[in-house]
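Journal club prep, shared notes

We agreed each person brings one worked example of a sequence with its structure written out as tokens. Mine is glutathione transferase. I'm keeping it raw so we can talk through how to read the token line rather than staring at a rendered picture. Sequence first:
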Amino acid sequence: MIIVHHLENSRSQRVLWLLEELGLPYEVQHYARAKTMAAPAELRRIHPLGKSPIIQDGENTIAETGAIIEYLVEKADGRLGAPGDRQSVLRYRYFLHYAEGSVMTNLLMTMVVGMVPLLGKPIQKKLAPLVKVHLDFIEAELGKRPWFAGQEFTAADVMMSFPLEFAAARMDGLKGRPNTKAWLEKIHARPAYQAALERGGPYDFA
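Then the structure, token by token:
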């Protein structure tokens, strides 16, 4: 049985969602954030970095959302993995890594510096064009096809969910971006997404 070490209002919601989409059995160990919003110290007993998401599957302990997503797709015999044609494969691979490697980094940096007294707001304004470039790029991509990799829903869409939910909730990033907004509404309507919310508990970004 897969055990998901799930931190409230975090990236680990994507792991629960993918498990529901794949129909893999799992259990959830729930963790609450500290007042500082940091992950609790108990997670370090599971993995030295003490960050969620973490899954345990038999002897395997796996951290990092992207690595977990790839592990689960492989465990499910490739379901929701890369599509058949070459261009879709390349897009799948790209967005699977782009979600955390580029767009989420810029979103978090913008939010964090905005919390710094005095100097934070001017720096945030300088970072805003970088975020806009990413969100405009995503909007354009979703204008070309229904899902990030191509014509079919894949794990790349699962990976891209949190950055766009974060952008919508924390910085009104979907204003004037109808393709992205429609995509977000589409994933939120999926039965597996709703089932994952029930298993995961409160989630401020849905």
